[in-house]
Design a protein that fits this description.
- This protein has twelve helices and 22 strands.
- With about 425 residues, it is an alpha/beta fold.
- A hairpin with a 2-residue loop joins β2 and β3.
- α7 runs parallel beside α8.
- The longest helix is centred in the last third of the chain and has 17 residues.
- The structure holds zinc ion.
- Zinc ion binds next to loops.
Length: about 425
Protein backbone atom coordinates (compact mmCIF):
# COMPACT_ATOMS: atom_id res chain seq x y z
CA UNK A 1 0.00 0.00 0.00
CA UNK A 2 1.24 3.44 -0.94
CA UNK A 3 0.15 4.59 2.47
CA UNK A 4 3.04 2.85 4.18
CA UNK A 5 5.69 3.59 1.65
CA UNK A 6 8.21 6.31 2.05
CA UNK A 7 10.43 7.52 -0.74
CA UNK A 8 13.67 8.67 0.77
CA UNK A 9 15.93 11.30 -0.64
CA UNK A 10 19.11 11.50 1.39
CA UNK A 11 20.22 15.05 2.11
CA UNK A 12 22.96 14.24 4.53
CA UNK A 13 24.94 11.44 5.95
CA UNK A 14 26.20 11.36 9.54
CA UNK A 15 28.63 8.66 10.44
CA UNK A 16 31.89 7.98 12.18
CA UNK A 17 32.21 4.24 12.00
CA UNK A 18 32.36 2.37 8.72
CA UNK A 19 29.36 0.13 8.98
CA UNK A 20 27.34 1.93 11.59
CA UNK A 21 25.55 4.84 10.12
CA UNK A 22 22.39 6.79 9.95
CA UNK A 23 20.93 8.48 6.96
CA UNK A 24 19.35 11.82 7.67
CA UNK A 25 16.68 12.08 5.11
CA UNK A 26 13.64 13.87 3.99
CA UNK A 27 10.83 11.85 2.59
CA UNK A 28 7.70 12.65 0.72
CA UNK A 29 4.48 11.17 1.90
CA UNK A 30 2.09 11.21 -0.99
CA UNK A 31 2.11 14.84 -2.04
CA UNK A 32 3.01 16.23 1.36
CA UNK A 33 6.35 17.34 2.64
CA UNK A 34 7.33 15.14 5.52
CA UNK A 35 9.56 15.74 8.54
CA UNK A 36 13.15 14.61 8.87
CA UNK A 37 13.67 10.99 9.80
CA UNK A 38 16.66 8.95 10.79
CA UNK A 39 17.16 5.53 9.33
CA UNK A 40 19.46 3.26 11.22
CA UNK A 41 21.09 0.34 9.54
CA UNK A 42 21.45 -2.36 12.13
CA UNK A 43 23.93 -0.70 14.45
CA UNK A 44 23.06 -3.12 17.19
CA UNK A 45 23.88 -6.05 14.95
CA UNK A 46 27.23 -4.49 14.24
CA UNK A 47 28.07 -4.31 17.92
CA UNK A 48 27.60 -8.05 18.16
CA UNK A 49 30.03 -8.56 15.36
CA UNK A 50 32.90 -9.64 17.56
CA UNK A 51 30.93 -12.29 19.41
CA UNK A 52 28.46 -13.57 16.87
CA UNK A 53 28.85 -15.83 13.90
CA UNK A 54 29.03 -13.05 11.32
CA UNK A 55 29.55 -13.18 7.61
CA UNK A 56 30.20 -10.14 5.41
CA UNK A 57 29.21 -10.13 1.78
CA UNK A 58 30.55 -7.38 -0.45
CA UNK A 59 29.03 -6.71 -3.86
CA UNK A 60 30.41 -4.24 -6.42
CA UNK A 61 28.80 -2.75 -9.51
CA UNK A 62 29.78 -0.50 -12.40
CA UNK A 63 27.74 0.67 -15.38
CA UNK A 64 28.24 0.55 -19.14
CA UNK A 65 31.28 -1.23 -20.53
CA UNK A 66 31.37 0.19 -24.05
CA UNK A 67 33.79 -0.54 -26.90
CA UNK A 68 33.70 2.26 -29.46
CA UNK A 69 35.75 2.21 -32.66
CA UNK A 70 38.53 4.45 -31.31
CA UNK A 71 38.85 2.06 -28.38
CA UNK A 72 39.18 -0.96 -30.69
CA UNK A 73 41.97 0.82 -32.56
CA UNK A 74 43.64 1.70 -29.26
CA UNK A 75 43.58 -1.87 -27.98
CA UNK A 76 44.89 -3.44 -31.19
CA UNK A 77 48.41 -4.78 -30.75
CA UNK A 78 51.18 -4.69 -33.38
CA UNK A 79 50.63 -8.40 -34.07
CA UNK A 80 46.93 -7.81 -34.85
CA UNK A 81 45.57 -9.29 -31.62
CA UNK A 82 43.63 -7.24 -29.05
CA UNK A 83 44.37 -6.56 -25.40
CA UNK A 84 42.01 -4.52 -23.20
CA UNK A 85 43.71 -5.19 -19.87
CA UNK A 86 45.34 -1.76 -19.46
CA UNK A 87 41.83 -0.18 -19.35
CA UNK A 88 41.23 -1.67 -15.90
CA UNK A 89 44.65 -1.53 -14.27
CA UNK A 90 43.60 1.03 -11.64
CA UNK A 91 40.20 -0.55 -10.93
CA UNK A 92 41.17 -4.23 -10.82
CA UNK A 93 42.76 -4.10 -7.32
CA UNK A 94 39.59 -2.45 -5.94
CA UNK A 95 37.33 -5.00 -7.60
CA UNK A 96 39.43 -7.81 -6.12
CA UNK A 97 38.08 -6.94 -2.66
CA UNK A 98 34.50 -7.87 -3.65
CA UNK A 99 32.83 -11.22 -3.25
CA UNK A 100 30.71 -10.48 -6.31
CA UNK A 101 31.62 -7.90 -8.97
CA UNK A 102 29.01 -6.97 -11.58
CA UNK A 103 29.16 -4.83 -14.75
CA UNK A 104 27.06 -4.16 -17.83
CA UNK A 105 28.55 -5.65 -21.00
CA UNK A 106 27.20 -3.36 -23.71
CA UNK A 107 28.46 -5.29 -26.72
CA UNK A 108 28.52 -8.78 -28.25
CA UNK A 109 31.21 -11.33 -29.02
CA UNK A 110 30.14 -12.56 -32.46
CA UNK A 111 33.69 -13.44 -33.48
CA UNK A 112 36.22 -12.13 -36.01
CA UNK A 113 34.40 -13.79 -38.93
CA UNK A 114 31.49 -11.33 -38.53
CA UNK A 115 33.92 -8.43 -38.59
CA UNK A 116 34.55 -6.34 -35.50
CA UNK A 117 32.36 -3.26 -35.28
CA UNK A 118 31.24 -0.53 -32.94
CA UNK A 119 28.40 1.97 -32.96
CA UNK A 120 25.65 1.42 -33.98
CA UNK A 121 26.13 -2.40 -33.93
CA UNK A 122 28.74 -3.63 -31.54
CA UNK A 123 30.92 -6.71 -32.07
CA UNK A 124 34.02 -6.68 -29.90
CA UNK A 125 37.04 -9.02 -29.88
CA UNK A 126 36.86 -11.87 -27.35
CA UNK A 127 39.92 -10.37 -25.65
CA UNK A 128 37.57 -7.99 -23.82
CA UNK A 129 36.07 -10.95 -21.90
CA UNK A 130 39.54 -12.06 -20.91
CA UNK A 131 40.38 -8.54 -19.68
CA UNK A 132 37.13 -8.33 -17.66
CA UNK A 133 37.96 -11.62 -15.99
CA UNK A 134 41.45 -10.30 -15.30
CA UNK A 135 39.91 -7.15 -13.80
CA UNK A 136 38.05 -9.36 -11.28
CA UNK A 137 34.54 -9.16 -12.69
CA UNK A 138 32.32 -12.13 -11.78
CA UNK A 139 28.96 -11.43 -13.42
CA UNK A 140 28.24 -9.51 -16.63
CA UNK A 141 24.76 -8.22 -17.37
CA UNK A 142 23.98 -8.93 -21.03
CA UNK A 143 20.55 -7.31 -20.97
CA UNK A 144 20.95 -4.04 -22.85
CA UNK A 145 20.04 -2.35 -26.10
CA UNK A 146 23.12 -3.78 -27.87
CA UNK A 147 22.58 -7.42 -26.84
CA UNK A 148 21.02 -8.31 -30.21
CA UNK A 149 23.31 -6.21 -32.44
CA UNK A 150 24.77 -9.35 -34.04
CA UNK A 151 21.58 -11.41 -33.98
CA UNK A 152 21.16 -14.96 -32.77
CA UNK A 153 24.72 -15.97 -33.52
CA UNK A 154 26.18 -13.09 -31.54
CA UNK A 155 23.72 -13.61 -28.71
CA UNK A 156 24.75 -17.25 -28.30
CA UNK A 157 28.46 -16.77 -28.89
CA UNK A 158 28.64 -13.93 -26.34
CA UNK A 159 27.40 -16.30 -23.63
CA UNK A 160 29.80 -19.03 -24.75
CA UNK A 161 32.77 -16.65 -24.60
CA UNK A 162 31.78 -15.44 -21.13
CA UNK A 163 31.49 -19.03 -19.92
CA UNK A 164 34.84 -19.88 -21.50
CA UNK A 165 36.35 -17.05 -19.45
CA UNK A 166 34.71 -18.31 -16.25
CA UNK A 167 32.30 -15.35 -16.11
CA UNK A 168 28.64 -15.68 -15.11
CA UNK A 169 25.92 -13.76 -16.89
CA UNK A 170 22.32 -12.65 -16.55
CA UNK A 171 20.11 -10.92 -19.09
CA UNK A 172 20.11 -13.54 -21.83
CA UNK A 173 20.32 -17.32 -21.92
CA UNK A 174 21.19 -20.11 -24.34
CA UNK A 175 18.02 -22.10 -23.63
CA UNK A 176 14.78 -21.39 -21.84
CA UNK A 177 15.67 -24.19 -19.40
CA UNK A 178 18.47 -22.01 -18.02
CA UNK A 179 17.49 -19.51 -15.29
CA UNK A 180 17.21 -15.84 -16.22
CA UNK A 181 19.42 -14.93 -13.26
CA UNK A 182 22.96 -15.61 -12.06
CA UNK A 183 23.82 -16.96 -8.63
CA UNK A 184 27.13 -16.61 -6.79
CA UNK A 185 27.76 -18.45 -3.56
CA UNK A 186 29.63 -16.45 -0.92
CA UNK A 187 30.42 -18.63 2.09
CA UNK A 188 27.04 -20.12 2.90
CA UNK A 189 25.07 -17.22 1.41
CA UNK A 190 23.75 -17.13 -2.13
CA UNK A 191 23.59 -13.87 -4.05
CA UNK A 192 21.09 -13.74 -6.93
CA UNK A 193 21.45 -11.19 -9.72
CA UNK A 194 18.68 -10.54 -12.24
CA UNK A 195 19.27 -8.22 -15.22
CA UNK A 196 16.66 -6.76 -17.56
CA UNK A 197 16.65 -4.22 -20.38
CA UNK A 198 14.00 -1.95 -21.84
CA UNK A 199 12.66 -2.83 -25.29
CA UNK A 200 12.83 -0.20 -28.01
CA UNK A 201 9.33 -1.14 -29.13
CA UNK A 202 6.84 -3.81 -30.16
CA UNK A 203 5.35 -4.22 -33.61
CA UNK A 204 1.63 -4.64 -34.26
CA UNK A 205 2.26 -8.39 -34.37
CA UNK A 206 3.83 -8.26 -30.93
CA UNK A 207 7.40 -8.67 -32.16
CA UNK A 208 9.88 -7.19 -29.70
CA UNK A 209 12.54 -4.81 -30.97
CA UNK A 210 15.87 -4.18 -29.29
CA UNK A 211 17.84 -1.20 -30.59
CA UNK A 212 15.26 -1.18 -33.40
CA UNK A 213 16.16 -4.76 -34.45
CA UNK A 214 13.31 -7.27 -34.67
CA UNK A 215 13.92 -10.15 -32.27
CA UNK A 216 13.22 -13.57 -33.79
CA UNK A 217 10.33 -15.40 -32.21
CA UNK A 218 12.62 -18.25 -31.12
CA UNK A 219 14.92 -15.80 -29.32
CA UNK A 220 12.29 -13.65 -27.61
CA UNK A 221 12.04 -15.73 -24.46
CA UNK A 222 15.80 -16.00 -24.17
CA UNK A 223 16.17 -12.25 -23.57
CA UNK A 224 15.26 -10.51 -20.32
CA UNK A 225 13.33 -7.52 -21.61
CA UNK A 226 10.51 -5.31 -20.44
CA UNK A 227 8.13 -2.97 -22.19
CA UNK A 228 8.60 0.47 -20.59
CA UNK A 229 5.07 1.46 -21.70
CA UNK A 230 3.50 -1.58 -20.03
CA UNK A 231 5.50 -2.64 -16.99
CA UNK A 232 2.98 -4.90 -15.23
CA UNK A 233 3.53 -8.15 -17.21
CA UNK A 234 7.30 -7.86 -16.85
CA UNK A 235 7.06 -7.12 -13.13
CA UNK A 236 5.01 -10.30 -12.86
CA UNK A 237 7.77 -12.19 -14.71
CA UNK A 238 10.37 -10.69 -12.35
CA UNK A 239 8.24 -11.80 -9.40
CA UNK A 240 8.30 -15.37 -10.73
CA UNK A 241 12.08 -15.19 -11.16
CA UNK A 242 12.35 -13.96 -7.59
CA UNK A 243 10.31 -16.96 -6.43
CA UNK A 244 12.66 -19.28 -8.33
CA UNK A 245 15.69 -17.62 -6.76
CA UNK A 246 14.11 -18.06 -3.33
CA UNK A 247 13.61 -21.75 -4.08
CA UNK A 248 17.29 -21.84 -5.07
CA UNK A 249 18.07 -20.56 -1.53
CA UNK A 250 19.10 -17.07 -2.66
CA UNK A 251 19.14 -14.61 0.27
CA UNK A 252 20.52 -11.43 -1.31
CA UNK A 253 18.56 -10.15 -4.31
CA UNK A 254 20.12 -7.72 -6.77
CA UNK A 255 18.30 -6.26 -9.79
CA UNK A 256 20.35 -4.79 -12.64
CA UNK A 257 18.25 -2.56 -14.89
CA UNK A 258 19.12 -1.13 -18.30
CA UNK A 259 16.74 1.76 -18.60
CA UNK A 260 16.12 5.49 -18.81
CA UNK A 261 16.95 8.11 -21.38
CA UNK A 262 20.40 8.81 -22.74
CA UNK A 263 22.25 11.84 -21.35
CA UNK A 264 19.49 12.62 -18.82
CA UNK A 265 20.91 13.13 -15.34
CA UNK A 266 17.53 12.52 -13.69
CA UNK A 267 15.53 9.27 -13.83
CA UNK A 268 12.44 8.97 -16.01
CA UNK A 269 9.07 8.32 -14.37
CA UNK A 270 9.08 4.71 -15.57
CA UNK A 271 12.46 4.11 -13.89
CA UNK A 272 10.99 5.32 -10.59
CA UNK A 273 7.88 3.21 -11.06
CA UNK A 274 9.90 0.08 -11.84
CA UNK A 275 12.28 0.75 -8.92
CA UNK A 276 9.23 0.93 -6.65
CA UNK A 277 7.95 -2.39 -8.00
CA UNK A 278 11.34 -4.06 -7.52
CA UNK A 279 11.45 -2.68 -3.99
CA UNK A 280 8.02 -4.14 -3.30
CA UNK A 281 9.16 -7.50 -4.68
CA UNK A 282 11.91 -7.47 -2.05
CA UNK A 283 15.09 -6.69 -3.97
CA UNK A 284 17.87 -5.31 -1.77
CA UNK A 285 19.37 -3.22 -4.54
CA UNK A 286 18.40 -1.89 -7.95
CA UNK A 287 21.46 -0.99 -10.02
CA UNK A 288 20.91 0.94 -13.23
CA UNK A 289 22.71 1.90 -16.40
CA UNK A 290 22.16 3.05 -20.00
CA UNK A 291 21.83 6.87 -19.81
CA UNK A 292 25.68 7.15 -20.27
CA UNK A 293 25.64 9.69 -17.44
CA UNK A 294 25.30 9.27 -13.69
CA UNK A 295 21.81 9.54 -12.19
CA UNK A 296 20.97 9.87 -8.47
CA UNK A 297 20.80 7.23 -5.80
CA UNK A 298 17.85 6.69 -3.52
CA UNK A 299 16.71 4.54 -0.61
CA UNK A 300 13.22 3.12 -0.67
CA UNK A 301 11.97 2.04 2.74
CA UNK A 302 8.90 0.03 3.58
CA UNK A 303 8.25 0.92 7.19
CA UNK A 304 5.75 -1.87 7.76
CA UNK A 305 8.04 -4.67 6.67
CA UNK A 306 11.27 -2.90 7.52
CA UNK A 307 12.53 -3.70 4.05
CA UNK A 308 14.86 -1.22 2.38
CA UNK A 309 16.14 -1.04 -1.15
CA UNK A 310 19.13 0.90 -2.38
CA UNK A 311 18.60 2.32 -5.88
CA UNK A 312 21.27 3.73 -8.17
CA UNK A 313 19.35 4.95 -11.19
CA UNK A 314 22.41 5.09 -13.39
CA UNK A 315 26.04 4.29 -12.73
CA UNK A 316 26.99 6.13 -15.93
CA UNK A 317 29.63 4.96 -18.37
CA UNK A 318 32.28 2.73 -16.90
CA UNK A 319 34.38 2.91 -20.05
CA UNK A 320 33.63 4.43 -23.42
CA UNK A 321 34.90 6.90 -25.99
CA UNK A 322 32.06 9.24 -25.07
CA UNK A 323 33.53 12.41 -23.63
CA UNK A 324 33.77 16.13 -24.01
CA UNK A 325 36.02 15.83 -27.07
CA UNK A 326 33.52 13.62 -28.89
CA UNK A 327 30.10 14.71 -27.55
CA UNK A 328 30.78 18.06 -25.88
CA UNK A 329 29.37 16.44 -22.76
CA UNK A 330 31.64 16.01 -19.73
CA UNK A 331 29.03 13.88 -17.92
CA UNK A 332 29.68 10.97 -20.31
CA UNK A 333 33.22 10.64 -18.89
CA UNK A 334 31.86 9.95 -15.39
CA UNK A 335 30.79 6.77 -13.67
CA UNK A 336 30.18 5.37 -10.21
CA UNK A 337 31.63 2.22 -8.73
CA UNK A 338 29.24 1.27 -5.95
CA UNK A 339 30.00 -1.22 -3.18
CA UNK A 340 27.22 -2.79 -1.12
CA UNK A 341 28.18 -4.48 2.11
CA UNK A 342 25.83 -7.00 3.64
CA UNK A 343 26.04 -8.56 7.07
CA UNK A 344 24.64 -11.96 7.88
CA UNK A 345 24.58 -13.12 11.47
CA UNK A 346 24.09 -16.82 12.04
CA UNK A 347 20.83 -17.83 10.36
CA UNK A 348 19.27 -14.39 10.18
CA UNK A 349 18.51 -12.73 6.86
CA UNK A 350 21.38 -10.67 5.44
CA UNK A 351 21.15 -6.93 6.08
CA UNK A 352 22.49 -4.17 3.85
CA UNK A 353 24.87 -2.36 6.20
CA UNK A 354 26.74 0.12 4.09
CA UNK A 355 26.91 1.59 0.63
CA UNK A 356 30.08 3.16 -0.64
CA UNK A 357 30.53 5.17 -3.82
CA UNK A 358 33.79 5.60 -5.65
CA UNK A 359 33.29 7.92 -8.63
CA UNK A 360 35.19 6.87 -11.76
CA UNK A 361 36.51 8.88 -14.69
CA UNK A 362 37.80 7.69 -18.05
CA UNK A 363 41.28 9.00 -18.69
CA UNK A 364 41.90 9.06 -22.44
CA UNK A 365 45.32 10.30 -23.42
CA UNK A 366 47.61 10.16 -26.42
CA UNK A 367 51.17 8.88 -26.33
CA UNK A 368 53.33 8.40 -29.42
CA UNK A 369 50.29 8.98 -31.63
CA UNK A 370 48.24 6.28 -29.91
CA UNK A 371 45.21 6.61 -27.62
CA UNK A 372 45.21 5.04 -24.17
CA UNK A 373 42.09 4.49 -22.07
CA UNK A 374 42.31 3.99 -18.31
CA UNK A 375 39.39 4.08 -15.87
CA UNK A 376 40.46 6.02 -12.79
CA UNK A 377 38.99 5.56 -9.30
CA UNK A 378 38.55 9.26 -8.58
CA UNK A 379 38.84 9.48 -4.81
CA UNK A 380 41.56 6.86 -4.65
CA UNK A 381 43.48 8.73 -7.34
CA UNK A 382 43.19 12.11 -5.64
CA UNK A 383 44.51 10.65 -2.39
CA UNK A 384 47.38 8.71 -3.94
CA UNK A 385 50.72 10.43 -4.58
CA UNK A 386 51.79 7.44 -6.61
CA UNK A 387 48.94 7.74 -9.10
CA UNK A 388 48.94 11.54 -9.14
CA UNK A 389 52.61 11.49 -10.11
CA UNK A 390 51.66 9.77 -13.34
CA UNK A 391 49.13 12.45 -14.29
CA UNK A 392 49.42 15.91 -15.77
CA UNK A 393 47.86 18.91 -14.05
CA UNK A 394 45.13 19.21 -16.68
CA UNK A 395 44.13 15.56 -16.12
CA UNK A 396 44.05 16.06 -12.36
CA UNK A 397 41.81 19.10 -12.80
CA UNK A 398 39.44 17.06 -14.98
CA UNK A 399 39.34 14.34 -12.30
CA UNK A 400 38.43 16.94 -9.67
CA UNK A 401 35.69 18.33 -11.91
CA UNK A 402 34.38 14.81 -12.48
CA UNK A 403 34.21 14.22 -8.73
CA UNK A 404 32.16 17.41 -8.28
CA UNK A 405 29.75 16.47 -11.05
CA UNK A 406 29.20 12.96 -9.77
CA UNK A 407 28.77 13.83 -6.12
CA UNK A 408 26.34 16.62 -7.01
CA UNK A 409 24.22 14.21 -9.00
CA UNK A 410 24.26 11.54 -6.32
CA UNK A 411 22.41 14.20 -4.27
CA UNK A 412 24.60 15.33 -1.44
CA UNK A 413 25.34 11.77 -0.49
CA UNK A 414 28.50 11.91 1.58
CA UNK A 415 29.90 8.44 1.55
CA UNK A 416 32.18 6.70 3.96
CA UNK A 417 35.81 6.27 3.09
CA UNK A 418 36.34 3.43 0.66
CA UNK A 419 37.66 0.46 2.55
CA UNK A 420 39.97 -1.50 0.33
CA UNK A 421 40.56 -4.54 2.51
ZN1 LIG B 1 22.49 1.08 -23.33
Amino acid sequence: MQKFKKRLTPIGFVSAVLTVFWLTTTFTYNAFTAPLVNVSFSDTLFKEKQVADTQWIQIGFVGDIMAHLTQLNAQKQPDGTYDFSNNYKWMAPLFATNDVMIGNLETTFAGASQGYSAYPKFNTPDALAEALKGANFDILATANNHMYDTGTKGLDRTLEILTKNDLNYTGSRLTTEQPRYAIRQVGNTKVGVLAYTYESGRTENGIITINGIHVKHADTNRLNTFDPWNLAPSVQEMREEMDRMTKDSVEIFIAVMHWGYEYKTMPADYQKALADSLHQLGFHAVLGSHPHVVQPMDFLVDSTRGHQTYVLYSAGNFISNQRYETLQNYHTEDGVYVVLKFQKIEDSAPVLCSVMHEPTWVNRYKKNGKYYYEVMPVKTTLSSEEILNELEDAQIQRIKNSLDRTMNILQNFKELPLQLN
